[in-house]
Write a structure and sequence with these properties.
By secondary structure, this protein is mostly helical. Helices cover 65% and strands 1% of the residues. It has 16 helices and two strands. A two-stranded antiparallel sheet has the order 1-2. It is elongated, with a radius of gyration of 61 Å. 10% of the residues are buried.
Length: 460
């Protein structure tokens, strides 16, 4: 037998691409249709190339072949020792050259491997405890055997094959020669390891052969194809059933009629009767609903109409105004008051309140100036207004220690300037009035004097 790597002409570490490339090249070279002059030899070579590629292209089979390549090439593994193990060498059947075709003839696939598994079963039969267990070894069958009756049971048994042989002939030590019990136990332990190793090796050999045969069994391929077709049919039937169900549901929806007990007309009548009964018993409440629809907020309580004792319950004693937080216990509220963040917010709130007070003071001063400017009609009142304005400005400069913003300073200057302009206008208006009055008085005196001169002097 020739090595598969030598048949394909590739090294042992060749990749899958190298194997495929070499296989295509040799297949074209040794194909019988390409060599009509030497058909017989080309058929044999083509079969070897195909067999080598089938084994090496499968990762599992390639690993097994690499591990036992020497034993396969030599036609089996050597067992050494004086005892000659006449068990069937299964390595000779890990290639397609042991059979010709997949028919039922003597050299066909089913005849050859049927004999192989029958021989293995006969080798294990003498070592079985129960001689009436022939039914545990199903027949391999032929190309026409049913998968459910024969093929399935055959592979189910042989894929979990475990040899019944004892393999005592692989033992290395004779326990009868042990000088004492301790040495005898050590010998027994070593012999048991050797027997277990041999059994494990035989089981792996047969199971790998079963896997090799199953992969090339046409009955298994046909059953797999049949299962795929059946699965496709089931899938198609499920889709058709789903489509029919969908159409049926659509038709039911089109023909749907509302039942009498769930009709909205009857429900509306019952609702009207219920409203009428409530109106008769509790009075008409439609006006309240109309008021709520007009936009009045009935959910908010009117605290103005409540007495003082009832209004106080809406406020919580454990509420921090500066931080806008409510607390459940006094301890929590006390800890919050001692916190740094609370103190910062309280200081900020005090500063804002102080700025608002300063702004109100400025507005009050402006109102005083306007009132004085309107009520004063004389110059003495104007002087009094100026003195009062000066006093107020001094009080503001002396009293307000807090710093004002630029906007507040600008607003204060504008108000002061406006007050000064109004006072100046008042003074000018008063002066003009005084001058007019004095001028009228002078004119009136002059006219009186002229009239007096024009009158005739009385006779004495």
């Amino acid at each position: 037998m020739k090595c598969h790597y030598d048949v394909l002409g590739v090294p042992k570490d060749a990749t899958n691409d190298d194997l495929k490339k070499s296989y295509r090249k040799l297949a074209l070279k040794w194909h019988p249709d390409k060599n009509q002059d030497n058909v017989e030899e080309c058929t044999i070579q083509f079969r070897l190339v195909q067999q080598a590629y089938d084994v090496l292209s499968d990762p599992h089979e390639r690993a097994w072949y690499d591990k036992h390549r020497e034993a396969i090439l030599q036609g089996g593994l050597g067992h050494g020792g004086e005892y000659e193990d006449k068990s069937l060498n299964v390595y000779a059947y890990f290639n397609s050259s042991c059979y010709s075709g997949c028919g039922d003839d003597e050299n066909g696939f089913y005849a050859v491997y049927g004999k192989v598994f029958k021989t293995i079963a006969e080798e294990d039969y003498p070592y079985m405890d129960s001689k009436e267990s022939d039914w545990e070894m199903p027949n391999f069958g032929n190309s026409q055997s049913s998968y459910e009756d024969t093929v399935h049971s055959f592979y189910a048994y042989w894929e979990s094959y475990s040899t019944a042989k004892s393999y005592v002939w692989v033992e290395k030590y004779d326990t009868r020669e042990a000088p004492h019990r301790r040495v005898r136990r050590l010998m027994e332990g070593e012999n048991k390891k050797l027997r277990d190793t041999a059994k494990k090796q035989r089981n792996e050999e047969v199971r790998e052969l079963v896997s090799y045969v199953r992969k090339r069994d046409e009955r298994v391929k046909a059953n797999k194809k049949r299962l795929e077709e059946r699965a496709e049919q089931v899938k198609k039937m499920a889709q058709e059933q789903k489509l029919r169900h969908k159409q049926q549901m659509k038709k039911q929806m089109e023909n749907y009629q509302e039942t009498g007990w769930s009709a909205m007309s009857e429900l509306e009548g019952d609702l009207q009767k219920l409203e009428a009964n409530i109106a008769n018993e509790f009075g008409d409440i439609s006006g309240e609903h109309e008021e709520s629809e007009d936009g009045s907020n009935d959910t908010e309580p009117n605290t103005e109409d409540l007495p003082d004792d009832e209004e106080q319950y809406t406020y919580d004693d454990l509420f921090c105004v500066a931080c806008n937080k409510a607390f459940k216990t006094d301890k929590a509220f006390t800890n919050h008051e001692n916190s740094k963040r609370h103190k910062e917010k309280v200081a900020l709130l005090c500063q804002q309140m102080k700025e608002e007070d300063d702004l109100d003071l400025d507005l009050d001063n402006e109102d005083i100036l306007v009132k004085l400017s309107l009520d004063s009609d004389k110059k003495d009142d104007t002087d009094l207004l100026e003195d009062e304005l000066q006093d107020l400005s001094e009080e503001e400069d002396m009293g307000s220690k807090s710093k004002l913003s630029k906007k507040q300073k600008k607003r204060r200057k504008q108000r002061q300037k406006l007050a000064e302009n109004e006072s100046q206008e008042k003074v000018d208006r008063d002066e003009s009035v005084t001058e007019n009055e004095s001028q009228e008085k002078v004119d009136r005196d002059e006219s009186v004097t002229e009239n007096a001169t024009l009158l005739p002097t009385p006779k004495k």
